[in-house]
Amino acid sequence: MSKSDLYKVRETRILLAALNTASSKGALDFRMADVARAAECSVGTLYGHFISKEDMMAALVQVGLTRRTEFAKRLSSLELSGMERFVSLLVLEQQRLAHDDILAQLELLVCYSDLWRRAADKRVAALRDASEEFDRQLDEALVAAEKEGYRLNEDQRARLTARGRAAVLGSQLQTSRQTLMPCGVMAGEGEFFNVLADIVRCGNGPVLDGNEWLGKCQNALELGREMIEQPVLGQVAA
């Protein structure tokens, strides 16, 4: 095995140890020494891969986002209208965050606070690229919907994308086990579909209720459930 391959194998082992440690001690409270102990290496070895604890947290967020990328790739194989694809992308994102709770917490800490400033520049750039890529996928779905007859100009597409992303973030904040005052009503799958139905309807999309969208997204949901059971560290972002 080459030095490069050994480096990648060791980094995967470190990230798995970090994920397990963060799960047991808390997304913010785990220490590098804890990770080194779990990975059976020195703290110095950790710093050979990550410039800081926050950089390690950002690397774990990258790992979580590889799942989103794979979801979107697999979703393209389904026969969906543009608006169905838009809703399905958001639903799969909500599923991902609900299932990978500790990774979702790390994502909140890294991406929505100033912790990202303590991560390596290349890691921050990769996270920004991943966010922009998801926005692009949502916009492409809406462009397809526009071609299918819905009245959606560029500004309307941007607003729909922003509202959809906000709905996913709101669901994550309101249902997380780590949230001090979770909102139980948002925990139900149907309620999230109701929120998306309102967003789509207000954006000149089809007038459907949450249950109707739930029916249209069944294939995407089944795909998500199948993929979400796969080990999250099956692929590690570079």
Share in β-strands: under 5%
How would you sum up the major sheet?
A: none
Query: What class do helices, strands and sheet pairing give?
Result: mainly alpha
Rounded Rg? 19 Å
Shape: elongated
Low-confidence stretches: none
Distance between the termini: 18 Å
Number of strands: 0
Order of helices and strands: HHHHHHHHHHH
> Helix segment count?
11
Mean pLDDT: 88
Oligomeric category: single chain
Percentage of helical residues?
Answer: over 70%
Q: How would you describe this structure to a colleague?
A:
The protein is mainly alpha-helical. It has helices at residues 3-25, 32-39, 43-47, 53-75, 82-99, 101-111, 121-147, 154-175, 189-202, 210-216, 218-228. It is elongated. The two termini are 18 Å apart. The mean pLDDT is 88.
What does the secondary structure layout of this molecule look like, with pairings?
Blueprint: H1 3-25, H2 32-39, H3 43-47, H4 53-75, H5 82-99, H6 101-111, H7 121-147, H8 154-175, H9 189-202, H10 210-216, H11 218-228
Helix pairs in contact: 1-2, 4-5, 4-6, 4-7, 4-11, 5-7, 5-8, 5-9, 5-11, 7-8, 8-9, 9-10
